[in-house]
Amino acid sequence: MLTIPRKIVDAMIEHAHQCAPQEACGVLSGTDGRVQSIYPMTNADASSEHFSLVPREQFDVARKIRDEGLVMLAVYHSHPATPARPSPEDIRLGVAPGIVHVIVSLADADQPVVRAFLIEDGQAAETPVRIAKDNGAQL
Amino acid sequence: MEITVNGDAVTLDGPLTIARLLVEQKVKMPDMVSVEHNGKILDRAEFETQQVQSGDTVEFLYFMGGGA
What we know:
The complex is a heterodimer of chains A (139) and B (68). Chain A has 139 residues and is of the alpha/beta class. Chain A has helices spanning 6-19, 55-67, 88-93, and strands spanning 2-5, 25-31, 34-41, 50-52, 71-79, 100-105, 113-120, 123-127, 129-132. In chain A, strand 5, helix 3 and strand 6 form a beta-alpha-beta unit. Chain B is mainly beta. Chain B has one domain (2-62): Beta-grasp domain (Ubiquitin-like (UB roll), Roll). The longest helix of chain B is centred in the N-terminal third of the chain and has 7 residues, at 18-24.
């Protein structure tokens, strides 16, 4: 279970719209499966079909998360024109242990879909997402 | 020697290479991590040669990427 405040869900969707038709990406941090902060990041691939985080940004965000006393819970990215399910590339490259992969689909731009998956050993298992009130969310 | 790895103090026999450190840290797929050594992001080719000394700071992160 990943609990995400409504404000952060909306921020991911807004980021996805801003970056479309390219993929948006970023990181979510918190504790105990409860997301508290979002870090929109640069898609190094600048692509509508691929994403990767910029290592320099990734290191800086990791330090910021640590300094805030939080842990990295999830990486999010958008699928501008495809469903919110892990692609073969998502599964192949989903190697970070314990990190949830949140996918924001804009296949129906008026009704974005947000789903989350834990990818381990080449297998993707859906993680339920609970959308919570905004107490404590940091944008 | 004592170094800092991802913000944590770690005591190891050393000096040792980045590649060896990743083994010691039980990194399953070292080809899929980025490493920052004393603030400098290393090329993967440097993992086998770059020595870690007492007092150094090392950060490593798994690659994060995918597709649609």
